[in-house]
Write the structure tokens for this entry.
Amino acid sequence: MSLVRVHNFSVSLDGFGTGEGQRFEAPFGHAGHKLHDWFFATRAFHAMQGQPGGSMGIDDAFASQWGPGIGAEIMGRNKFGYQRGPWADEEWQGWWGDNPPFHTPVLVLTHHVRPALQMKGGTTFHFADESPAGALELARGLAGGLDVRIGGGPSTVRQFLAADLIDQMHVAVVPVVLGRGERLWDELEDLEQRFSIEAVSSPSGVTHLTFTRRPVE
Amino acid sequence: MSLVRVHNFSVSLDGFGTGEGQRFEAPFGHAGHKLHDWFFATRAFHAMQGQPGGSMGIDDAFASQWGPGIGAEIMGRNKFGYQRGPWADEEWQGWWGDNPPFHTPVLVLTHHVRPALQMKGGTTFHFADESPAGALELARGLAGGLDVRIGGGPSTVRQFLAADLIDQMHVAVVPVVLGRGERLWDELEDLEQRFSIEAVSSPSGVTHLTFTRRPVE
């Protein structure tokens, strides 16, 4: 059975996975780059951009687990774009240009379904109004037997955790206090009882947490 | 100038420094021992209880910084006890028996001032209705030139952080999700700009964060 995985999901010390006030100029709102500077510095991120260079080390080791074995991603609509409600601008094709870094089918969860967008490099955005379980079934159908990544944002990851649909999760805790935004951990009391959790800190200051679902007894 | 320090302050992944529902049988409410199991396992904690044994290693290295150089502690009333409002039970002398582990003056912040309590072993509980700055001035007067420890709970530490009165802080992030209780990090947006922060994870799963106040430029 293919796994459901989360990678490189960054949160602040106060548990925010994104800031307040998302808009075109600020995909993460007032958080700016704070949550992702560790990731941008890695060789894995440079490679995603088609660029040489970047750091090796523990941040890169985690960052580079993002792609291998993944056949499809599920993302919330606010990861796809900054528009809310009906699509005022159907020209919008995501934040990533004409060759997005996913290179697989991507299922965008939205109450406002629109036709699929086929991009360069193997990425196709599909749009569906589905529950987590329904979305996972669709994504598995698109993933060709490979794993499904839950790409965020915070409320999407939280909903999949609440529905107990996630097998493996990597969260990077960044030593900043955002104060406001969208929290990852709300309504997940006792989450640790369902997972084995490892923690390892990086010289960058980030702490990498890995959640591995415990076998059902 | 003596320093203002926080040690062994444990929070959950979702930022709670204590659970909901404190009462005599449950000083940390529904959190039980979850936030402090790492501390109870250390040699430093065993020594505080007058017991042999306990772990060495990184958890103990942090835990044992708690005492040396401290001349007084400031604590919130809810760390001292579970009663709220006027003291219905003046017999209450804290959770720690007749020989508390502090062995210094302890200033308890409360709107309901009462006479000082002199305990065995050098601990004296003083009670004062003061702002953080006023409390610190009193505690420095009691500390004999040594450092002052801010002992908690979460709202006391948060108020001292908000007033920018803390020089060094050790926070232990425990990999549990409490879901409810009292948060440490609220209303502290951009806290990281005032501190240098190190993070190091322990094999116990706990991540030790140390905040060192940046020099004023």
About this structure: The mean pLDDT of chain B is 96. The CA atoms of residues 105 and 124 of chain B lie 5 Å apart.
